[in-house]
Amino acid sequence: MKDTYKTITQPSAEVLFKDKNSKFFGYAFPVHSEDDVKQCLETIKKQHHSARHWCYAYQIGTEEHSMLFRANDDGEPNNSAGMPIYGQIQSFELTHVLIIVVRYFGGVKLGVGGLIHAYKTTAQMALESSKIVTKTINKTFLVTCDYKNLNTVMRIIKERTLDVIDQKLELDCQIKLSVRLKESEEVFEIFERLHEISIKEMS
């Protein structure tokens, strides 16, 4: 089971590609929702309000977890902008990423082939200027116990080097854990078998 994915954690530096007087500015952003995409687009449109086209592509999620992607030509000929940009997201094997390429028309038509090359190259340059990281796909569990069983829970957390996201030690003890996908079943079963300790998956 694949439980890692590659992404970027910071917006890229602005990159510029020129062809026959047309200028293509490229940007890559980390995104986790369609609202994030909308905000990034609004920011870039304000920054480049006199541009002719703001073409983009994004992918959110992973194959195991509801993948979502979109490519937008924004007035350029069909599949000459959005898909070449999306092709670079696939080529770099990334997700949770948005690439926007802004075009200023320079008076000379590039033709569909020229446009495909320009949008693909600008997207590639934006990703090359980004720091790419590998992250794990995790599940979140809530473990609940009383104080007399807390040592047992903490021992398992330490032995399995589990990630504690949050803990509330009040009338009872509630510990929120983040567990790598491929270890999640095993960890769930360990806690499930214990008397007076409960575990449930959180959405």
TrEMBL record:
Q: Which domain of life is it from?
A: Bacteria
Gene Ontology CC terms:
cytoplasm
From the Swiss-Prot or TrEMBL record, give the protein name: Impact N-terminal domain-containing protein
Family per similarity comment: Belongs to the IMPACT family.
Q: Which residue ranges does the record assign to the Impact N-terminal domain?
A: 20-127
What InterPro entries does the record point to? Impact, Impact_N, Impact_N_sf, Ribosomal_Su5_D2-typ_SF
Organism, as annotated: Mangrovimonas yunxiaonensis
One Gene Ontology biological process:
regulation of translational initiation
One matching Pfam family: Impact_N
